[in-house]
Design brief:
The complex is a heterotrimer of chains A (about 550), B (about 475) and C (about 500).
Chain A: H1 5-15, E1 20-21, H2 24-31, H3 36-39, E2 52-54, H4 59-72, E3 75-79, E4 96-100, E5 107-111, E6 116-119, H5 125-133, E7 137-138, H6 150-155, H7 164-167, H8 170-173, E8 174-180, E9 186-188, E10 224-231, E11 233-234, E12 258-264, H9 268-281, E13 286-289, H10 299-306, H11 315-319, H12 323-331, E14 335-341, H13 345-362, E15 365-366, H14 368-371, H15 373-385, E16 397-403, H16 409-427, E17 440-443, E18 456-462, H17 466-485, H18 492-497, H19 503-511, H20 517-529
Parallel strand pairs in A: 2-4, 3-4
Antiparallel strand pairs in A: 1-2, 5-6, 6-10, 7-11, 8-9, 8-10, 12-14, 12-15, 13-14, 13-17, 16-18, 17-18
Chain B: H1 7-12, H2 37-42, H3 49-60, H4 68-75, H5 82-87, H6 96-109, H7 117-127, E1 155-156, E2 164-167, H8 169-174, H9 181-191, E3 196-198, H10 207-212, H11 215-232, E4 236-239, H12 242-254, E5 260-263, H13 264-273, E6 286-289, E7 308-312, E8 316-320, H14 334-341, E9 347-349, H15 367-370, H16 372-388, E10 393-396, H17 399-410, E11 452-455, H18 456-463
Helix pairs in contact in B: 3-6, 9-18, 13-14, 16-17
Chain C: H1 4-19, E1 24-25, H2 28-32, E2 48-50, H3 55-68, E3 72-75, E4 94-97, E5 104-108, E6 113-116, H4 122-130, E7 134-135, H5 148-153, E8 171-178, E9 183-185, H6 196-201, H7 217-221, E10 229-237, E11 239-240, E12 244-252, H8 255-267, E13 274-278, H9 279-286, H10 291-296, E14 300-308, H11 313-332, E15 342-343, E16 346-347, H12 348-356, H13 364-367, E17 371-379, H14 384-398, E18 406-412, E19 417-426, H15 431-448, H16 463-468, H17 471-484
Parallel strand pairs in C: 2-4, 3-4
Antiparallel strand pairs in C: 1-2, 5-6, 6-10, 7-11, 8-9, 8-10, 12-14, 13-14, 13-18, 15-16, 17-19, 18-19
Classes of the chains: A alpha+beta (about 550), B alpha/beta (about 475), C alpha+beta (about 500).
The complex binds iron/sulfur cluster (SF4) (2 copies).
One iron/sulfur cluster binds near residues 13, 15, 16, 17 and 49 of chain B.
């Protein structure tokens, strides 16, 4: 049992020798993952190394690989674009075959009339968005950004982001799905299984995808998703993508039917009030607290630097001391980005009136410098495409999101001071980037129509500095404690830290969950669907009973 | 610098894979979103910019050893620099391109190079030029490289002194198939009244051996060339080749050269702007411009730097003094376009991947010499993109790009191009019937001709007032 | 006691212990109410009907059912029932009548959320919400006794496509007792303590339907006909109550002519209620109606509700109306479409009442002739004209006049999915008519599915042919059933759980 040269030969027979490798250096390029350093022994940047990596080109090849792995008890871990440690093998004890899905990269269909696109795993958001925009349509590019697989976001990961407020998170937008189960069977969900096309997610009867696509998705731990349909939505205005400007701060002109604002409020209470009022009035198209990722103390200086290609990161230091920038920093301390789109001139003008009235009600304002043409076009570019998400790592190559407990604005506003104080405290020794306690960023709503939001603390550390990396780990642990001491569940850091734990520790935590029965059910589901345990533990379960 | 100096880059790589695409803001279609020829051809992550960082990190960490696969990974890349541009859209602390160079130097020092490299470097050392090697398939190594100027009156700076040197580069010097670009350039410079001369045989800039990883051979070439320039009193070098341009502008400057480096398209743009040159003849063509990697995103001016990493705000990584940021923002993009737009009757259309996001022609980084199939594949992809614009021709400002496109269109020896598989999808390029669909550069452009390849200077020549008219 | 009577006595005692004596019934009249419905399911009387009063009683019932191997049939709505899903599929079943659990647990204006029990009906909920400035989007004129939770769990289409982001919207979180007796909360409530009061005290609300964890439990429950779990409470997303309302109509001779306009409205998320209706359906909805008006109704009508709410409601409605008129002028021109403020016998106010209220007694679908059958499936908008034509042809072929078929098309999921429904009223005393209706109903899957009709909710006789088309889902659903209801105590015999 396990991986042998004979098994390698079987892989070669399935995908062709050019599409499989067991060269250690090649394998390390899959084991190396961002965030690994926060959860692996000795802060290693490597997750467990797969025994081989294979590049399947078809669903049939995926099936065949999965079946071989069932016979030989090798775990299977698929990745689409593979940007963080969840995408890598999770087990040091078991052999894992990594599937790199990059050969399955086609957009199979764009059905404009019915607003449906059908894609394979390696279609990234930027590609699909570019194609549907030609038709005046749009997709929800998730918070992870335009470089990421839309299929992965829809089927296997969180799938939310700045656009979810209007376009829906990709969990909601997932329609029919083709799924190679852990035993190598193909399930086609919704209308697809009945031969009626890709448009309907549910049924017949209960919705099969319910076993694997919850809040987070199975993150590669429950078979392989090989094709899916995604719901599209309207994008008013031009179908041209008239990007201009000098790298890195590209700009997108603001169409007549759009408005691009940075809005600020005097307090977190006013922030929550404004969010609720925006939901009630159903205005807005992209709704995100984006720019604060650079930290409330430094964000204005940082973005002004970024927009001047002759400047570099070190310039932020003196720019932040500029009196005008200091004033701006105070002006936009509690701010967020808000893009509105009207289906007609009358509609966008009305939205503008509504927004002005709402700002007046909560004592808020538009941050003028960031609403001027240059910054508005930059904001427009940034949020329409989300092609700069790698900037999360801009300070020092290491960033970990903490907090981000999802809930109503009233719930979220309560943990902001706790999260801010925690980062301030943990960065005091200079081992984390000191950009202000509030480096919190997040979507206006993670669910279409508004209702739930969340703010993630952007904790930056130097990924090339062991002490800084360790400080980030300590901060994660502190964040869990800070949350617990206020009766709050762990945030994103809790999800990440899970990877550093033994199976026993994970099981103990799941057993202590508020509703452990959930993980008993997931165990039973896994036992039934993945009898040979070729998936990893990211599909969370309590241990087998008895 | 040594490879270990680039360990931080690898440690700070997030495996975001931005380096596999053009800058994401610039993606305009599914078809032309991809930016890295190497990873599209080699497929595994290791063949991307970021993947190479991890590959050498793994070697430095003692987790793996140099295998044939590792050698393939390190060298099967054009060093086109797209990864560098895209990485730096979001990062100030990463130098993926410089790191990949260093990776090659490190392997060359260990004698771990692709099998073809040995004969190539051997030929280079014997002839002093990259052209004419059996692997490069075209060019006449027997000539002295000055045949193109034979009946012109021009200073020979081997023996004479002059402030302006016209440097056509190996490819224009030896590849007779690329037409009268060098000659036209010389005429323009002379008519502009510049004190221009040429240097004769064997004067390779050394850039291409540098890219292959032979740092010492490059140093030898650079020192010899700089000495010759100094002896001749050269203050300005005008080059026709993007590779030479980059080598002079950046690599020589790094070694202390203060000679002004100008690409001929910049010179023409300058002369046009100053009214010292005029286009009168119609060139009724729709063309698309291909940005050569070394003139475009890598064509940024050299900024001296000798600094160290420091931290601000606790952990933010910056450099003291500020480190120059080569990210493609200041490449030479507008000069060739300004020249083309000034040509009467000519319409310029853009490819989706242009300027800092241009897809490489395939020839760079020793790929043309060592990996002909990969080279042809990369070129075919670009030709397909150029054709998709509806243009009649693709125009560039680098003879390597032009040679590569010509080969992609008709096969390297004027054959039918069979074996040049178009990447990603059936392109029709490979299926073009023998010899058709191709016009050699320098042939007068005609709108109804099949798809053509030109140098900017080919079109400039056609637009200039007719002699004696 | 080992004999049948003995078992019954034991059972009665056990049930009485769980729900208290008066809430256990086996009197024939009560049993008769659950023995048959307006479907062709074989009438099977239940053994008992029990009316639990809270979640713990439901848990005990399920525990008892597992221990004794007794089938349970959960029912939340009052009669009439139509789909056969509440008729026991096995003898000896106990109907769990959830109507006693009818508390509106919470109405949260700020989060626009109601938390309700399964017995809460639209007739009960809507006025309570209105008092807080809210309302819930309903299915088309639900019957007064229709359980809100049951309607949403069964993915009954709702009227405002703009708010229908995905199924089973606006249903968000549920409290569930699964077939194996375990109780969990679904969605974000699944992360909190298993007590609503405790969650509320901690500031938690039950908004996000996903999860918890890797599983989307609410989607497993949706369309499950009570075969996997019994829902004991649910949160339902509401909208602000409009302050100003209006309905406009776009009549057309042919359905095809309305497709473009309807699609565009979805794409622009324009309009409040948006639906397509045949003349006969409108007539049933508006009944009683003058015969003269009835005969003058256009064959097809696109009904578009407009609403203004929150800031500037009047302007909000005016902009919508302008935009709707522009879409109709733009895309309807070639077919001569125009926006009308009313139809013969129907004006804006009359239609508003239909769209916002519950049905009078008798239920409107039964009012015409005393009985009816419905055939419904999902399809994409572009396929609808052909599918409708095929269905009407099938009706004729079955001996039922196509002109009498009420056709209702409800865009869902913001225009990606369309619920397409055919209502065939008939006189139960007219054997020929009843046979024709039955023939239409039973052959619908076989005839329409190959043409692209997707029967996502396979009730009664549709289950076999639907699951025969989809072996992958069938196998997976049986696996799921084995996990959540290993002893097959919940509504056995439905779907593919035979
Ligand atoms: S080299 Fe840069 S762009 Fe490429 S994966 Fe690494 S961090 Fe990302
Ligand atoms: S230099 Fe060009 S070919 Fe090489 S890795 Fe970077 S983008 Fe790819």
């Amino acid at each position: 049992m396990g991986f042998t040269p004979e098994v390698y030969k079987l892989f070669e027979d399935i995908v062709g020798p050019e599409n499989v490798s067991d060269d250690p250096a090649v394998l390390d390029s899959y084991a190396f993952e961002v965030l690994a350093d926060l959860v692996r022994p000795e802060q290693s940047h490597y997750m467990p190394r797969p025994v081989a990596v294979a590049l399947p080109g078809t669903t049939e090849e995926v099936q065949a690989l999965v079946r071989v792995c069932n016979v030989h008890r090798i775990k299977v871990k698929p990745l689409s674009t593979g940007w963080y440690h969840f995408a890598a093998p999770q087990s040091d004890e078991h052999d894992t075959l990594q599937l790199d899905m990059r050969r399955m990269d086609r957009i199979l269909e764009i059905d404009e009339t019915n607003m449906v696109a059908v894609i394979e795993p390696y279609v990234i958001a930027a590609q699909l968005q570019a194609e549907v925009m030609k038709l005046g349509l749009n997709i929800n590019v998730t918070g992870a950004g335009a470089s990421c697989s839309i299929l992965a976001s829809a089927c296997a990961y969180a799938g939310q982001g700045p656009m979810a407020y209007w376009m829906g998170g990709n969990a909601e937008n997932l329609l029919a799905l083709e799924w190679v189960t852990p035993t190598g069977d193909v399930v086609r969900t919704g209308s697809l299984g009945s031969g009626a096309g890709w448009f309907a997610a549910e049924g017949p009867g209960p919705s099969v995808r319910g076993v694997c696509r919850g809040t987070f998705g199975s993150r590669g731990g429950m078979g392989v998703y090989t094709k899916c349909a995604i719901k599209l939505c309207h994008r008013p205005g031009t179908t041209e993508w008239n990007v201009h400007g000098t790298t890195p701060a590209y700009r997108l002109p603001v169409d007549d039917l759009f408005r691009v604002y940075t809005l600020a409020v005097p307090s977190w209470d006013a922030w929550a009030d404004l969010y609720y009022k925006i939901y009630d009035n159903e205005i807005g198209y992209i709704f995100h607290r984006q720019f604060n990722l650079a930290g409330a103390n430094l964000a204005p200086a940082f973005w002004l630097m970024y927009n001047d290609h002759t400047k570099t990161l070190g310039d932020v230091e003196w720019m932040a001391q500029d009196p005008a920038v200091k004033e701006l920093t105070e002006e936009m301390r509690i701010s967020f980005q808000f893009i509105m789109a009207g289906r007609s001139t009358g509609d966008i003008e009305l939205q503008d009136r509504v927004l002005d009235a709402l700002l007046q009600q909560v004592g808020g304002w538009k941050v003028e410098r960031f609403c001027e043409d240059d910054m508005a076009e930059f904001t427009n570019m940034y949020l329409q495409r989300l092609g700069h998400k790698h900037i999360n790592y801009v300070w020092a190559g290491g960033y970990v999101g903490t907090w981000m407990q999802i809930g109503t604005p009233d719930w979220v506003k309560n943990y902001i001071p706790i999260a801010s104080a925690g980062l301030e405290r943990d960065a005091a020794d200079g081992l984390l980037v000191q950009c202000g306690g509030d480096a919190m960023m997040g979507s206006g709503s993670g669910f279409p129509g508004g209702g739930v939001t969340g703010l993630e603390q952007f904790v930056s550390y130097d990924a090339n500095d062991l002490e800084s990396t360790r400080a980030a780990v300590r901060h994660m642990e502190d964040a869990v404690k800070d949350a617990a001491s206020h009766g709050l569940p762990p945030g994103k850091e809790g999800l990440y830290l899970e990877l550093s734990k033994t199976d026993e520790q994970v099981h103990a935590e799941l057993a202590a969950a508020n509703q452990p029965a959930i993980f008993r059910f997931q165990r039973k589901i896994k036992d039934a669907i993945d009898p040979n345990d070729i998936g990893d533990r990211l599909y969370a379960t309590l241990p087998p009973e008895g | 610098m040594a490879l270990i100096d680039y360990r931080p880059d690898a440690m700070r790589c997030t495996r975001c894979s931005y380096c596999k695409w053009v800058p994401l803001d610039l993606v305009k279609s599914w078809r032309y979103a991809k930016g890295c020829p190497s990873v599209e051809h080699g497929r595994f992550h290791s063949y991307s910019g970021g993947g190479r960082l991890i590959t050498y990190l793994s070697l430095l960490d003692g987790r793996s050893e140099v295998t044939d696969r590792v050698v393939d990974i390190a060298f099967k890349c054009q060093l086109c620099g797209n990864c560098d541009v895209t990485c730096k859209v979001c990062r100030y602390d990463m130098e993926p391109l410089a790191a990949q160079h260093e990776f090659r130097f490190w392997l060359v020092e260990q004698g771990r190079v692709p099998t073809r490299y040995e004969s190539i470097i051997d030929g280079y050392r014997r002839r002093g030029t990259m052209v004419g090697d059996p692997n490069t398939l075209v060019g006449d190594p027997q000539s002295d490289g000055l045949r193109w100027a034979r009946d012109l009156r021009v200073k020979d700076l081997n023996t004479d002194r002059g402030e302006v040197l016209l440097h056509p580069g190996c490819r224009f010097s030896y590849d007779g198939g690329l037409g009268p670009v060098a000659r036209t350039s010389l005429e323009i410079l002379q008519e502009a009244g510049l004190d221009v001369g040429v240097l004769g045989a064997g004067r390779c800039c050394g850039g291409r051996v540098y890219h292959m990883g032979y740092r010492d051979d490059f140093t030898t070439a650079a020192e010899a060339t700089l000495a010759a320039w100094e002896a001749a009193g050269v203050k300005t070098v005008v080059t026709l080749c993007a590779d030479c341009y980059h080598t002079f502008k950046r690599l020589y400057a790094e070694r202390g050269s203060s000679v002004e480096v100008v690409h001929m398209v910049e010179m023409v743009a300058r002369l046009l702007a100053e009214g010292r040159l005029e286009f009168t003849e119609e060139v009724p063509l729709t063309v698309t411009y291909h940005d050569p990697c070394h003139l475009g995103r890598q064509g940024e001016p050299y900024v001296p730097w000798d600094g160290v990493e420091k931290k601000i705000f606790g952990q933010a990584v910056v450099y003291d003094p500020p480190r120059p940021r080569y990210n493609g923002a200041q490449g030479i993009y507008d000069a060739p376009r300004d020249v083309l737009r000034a040509i009467p009757g000519l319409e310029l259309v853009e490819m989706e991947r242009s300027r800092e996001a241009a897809w490489c022609c395939g020839a760079g980084g020793g790929v043309r010499e060592a990996f002909p199939e990969f080279n042809a594949w990369t070129a075919a992809e670009r030709v397909e993109e150029a054709r998709s614009t509806g243009a009649d021709a693709v125009v560039s400002a680098c003879p390597w790009c032009e040679r590569n496109f010509l080969d992609a269109l008709r096969g390297p020896r004027g054959g039918d191009g069979t074996g040049v598989a178009a990447p990603f999808q059936d392109s029709g390029v490979a299926a073009a019937p023998a010899g058709r669909g191709v016009a050699a550069p320098g042939v007068t452009a005609a709108a109804d001709a099949p798809f053509q390849v030109f140098d900017v200077l080919d079109l400039v020549r056609q637009a200039l007032p007719r002699k004696g008219a | 006691m080992g004999n049948a009577i003995g078992r019954a006595v034991d059972a009665r005692d056990a049930l009485a212990e769980i729900v208290r004596g008066e809430h256990v019934s086996d009197d024939p009249a009560t049993l008769a109410g659950f023995t048959r419905d307006h479907s062709d399911e074989l009438p099977i009387p239940p053994w008992f009907v029990v009316r639990p009063g809270d979640e713990s009683q439901v848990r005990e019932l399920v525990g008892w059912a597992n221990a004794t191997g007794t089938p349970l049939v959960p029912v939340s709505s009052g009669p009439p029932h139509f789909r056969g899903d509440t008729v026991p599929g096995r003898p000896g079943a106990v109907v769990v009548d959830l109507r006693r659990m009818k508390a509106i647990r919470r109405i949260d204006r700020r989060n626009k959320l109601a938390v309700i029990e399964p017995g809460v009906t639209y007739a009960q909920l809507q006025p309570a919400l209105a008092a807080e400035g809210l309302r819930v989007v309903t299915p088309l004129r639900p019957r007064a006794g229709k359980s809100v939770i049951a309607a949403l769990l069964e993915r009954e289409p709702t009227l405002v496509p703009r708010y229908h982001y995905a199924f089973p919207e606006p249903l968000r979180n549920c409290g569930v007792v699964w077939g194996n007796g375990e109780a969990t909360y679904t969605g974000e409530a699944g992360y909190g303590p298993p007590s609503l009061d405790a969650q509320w005290a901690a500031g938690m609300r039950q908004v996000d339907p996903k999860g918890p964890a890797q599983t989307d439990f609410v989607r497993l429950l949706s369309g499950a006909q009570g075969t996997l779990g019994i829902v004991t409470w649910a949160s339902v997303k509401c909208t602000l109550l409009p302050e100003t309302r209006k309905v406009v109509f776009v009549p057309a001779h042919r359905l095809e002519h309305l497709i473009g306009v309807c699609g565009r409205l979805q794409r622009l998320r324009l309009g409040e209620e948006v639906l397509l209706a045949s003349g006969s359906l409108l007539a049933s909805l508006m009944a009683p109606m003058r015969e003269a008006d009835r005969s003058e109704l256009p064959p097809w009508t696109l009904v578009v509700g407009l609403a203004g709410r929150a800031m500037f409601p009047e302007e909000c409605l005016a902009v919508q109306e302008t935009d709707v008129r522009e879409v109709v002028a733009d895309l309807g021109r070639e077919h001569g479409l125009e926006v009308a403020d009313g139809l013969p016998g129907i004006d804006s106010d009359g239609m508003l009442e239909i769209l916002t209220g519950v049905s009078a007694e008798p239920y409107w679908r039964l009012a015409d002739k005393g009985d009816c059958r419905e055939v419904f499936f999902n399809a994409t908008l572009d396929k609808l004209p052909d599918l409708v034509a095929a269905a009407l042809w099938l009706a004729e072929e079955s001996g039922y006049p196509a002109a009498d078929v009420g056709v209702y098309i409800q865009p869902q999921q913001q225009g990606v999915v369309h619920h397409c429904e055919f209502t065939l009223p008939f006189d139960p005393a007219d054997a020929d008519e009843a046979a024709a209706v039955r023939a239409f109903h039973t052959t619908a899957v076989e005839r329409l599915a190959p043409a692209g009709a997707y029967f996502s909710r396979p009730y009664g006789p549709w289950a076999n042919p639907v699951y025969a088309r989809d072996g992958g889902s069938t196998a997976m659903l049986r696996t799921i059933k084995g996990v959540f209801d290993p002893n097959n105590v919940l509504n056995p015999g439905k779907l593919c759980f035979r």
